[in-house]
Amino acid sequence: MKLAIVAALITSVGAFMAPAPSTFISRRTTSPIMATASPPAPAARKTPVFDEVCETTGVTLTRFMIEVAMLNPELSELPSLFSGIETACKAISNMVKRSQLTGDIGYAEGGGSINVQGEEQKTLDIMTNDVLKRALRFTGKLGVLASEEEDTPVDVEPTGKEVMFDETSKYVAVFDPLDGSSNVDAGIPTGTIFGIFDHDEECVVNDKDEGLTEAEMVCLTNTLKPGTDLIASGYCLYSSSCFFVMTVGCGVYGFTLDESIGEFVLTHPNIKIPETSKIYSFNEANLPQWDEPMRETVEKWRIGEGKSGNSFSSRYIGSMVGDVHRTLLYGGVFGYPSDKKNVNGKLRLLYEGAPMSYLMEQAGGLSTTGTKRVMEILPDEVHQRVPIVMGSKQDVQEVVDAYSAAGF
Ligand code: FDP
Fold this sequence. Notes:
By secondary structure, this protein is an alpha+beta fold.
């Protein structure tokens, strides 16, 4: 397997020499939300070129991030943050893999532990949240943290001897520690999603019950940025292999955990999603409740009467990271659209919708609510939901066109 990876890397060196993808999204875009889901023009961020590749280790995520930081000095603090996330992913991968043996399955506290979304928490939801929080705290690079399992942003200002780097807070990280956790007890793929924003303000949020102080509101506001302000995003997929897929705004790069050396190794350089495809990925039980343009487009796809003329197949794991990973590699459309009961769909904007949309656009795809580009939506609250349709450019554009033709 290692040899196959090395061969793939050597043939992929050319891919690194390609210019930055034309889908680069400016972090400070303020353009109005358009009916088209197309991202704006590219800005410059440099991607490393690897002339020499070690035959034993390939290009590790650590090396990749060091080279990214050397080429883009404004990102110089990112490698240590990535190293925290990478370590957490390895730990979570083991926890998920061993959960049937260690008994870390089922609902937390035997049932009844409810997160701020009103959803019952799995044992692994809580454990993985803690792992990620601790891994990031010790990077010393983080100001504020918001997560699906936390009600308000959590202060992770480094303190005492546990701090590895004595520097001011620079980033805000948002994450979903174990996305798709309702599947985890059945051994179905799950994942961790993360998004990283610049952190301009110094602030502290205390863990307590009586609501937020004004200073804490500043923290909250700091976390609430549109996807166009993301510095980096990515996910770890816990499946047949453990994958780490990321972007820092110059394409999408996929790494696979090589357990024999304990490193993520570059296996999928410069991922590009096919422009059109034959796969859709939705919870079709909700189809009768969807907006008419959404319903009609999918009904046409089913019978080969959509724009491409392809008869689509359905593939839905019900685990966003798994479904998005397949969509990136094979093409297709993944979504959780608005429906009559859930007008904002199900997925969370800040730590699911925006980070995944950043990856999707960087891979050459699109991500829309049907009427707006997901990346440009400014969140009003941390756990805000957003309707999402993302994937192959031409197919997603077909959805956008259907909404627009129907006067939405
Ligand atoms: P889960 O509730 O298991 O964590 O947003 C969470 C999510 O899974 C996504 O990963 C997944 O795409 C979606 O919900 C599945 O929702 P449905 O069960 O309603 O299809």
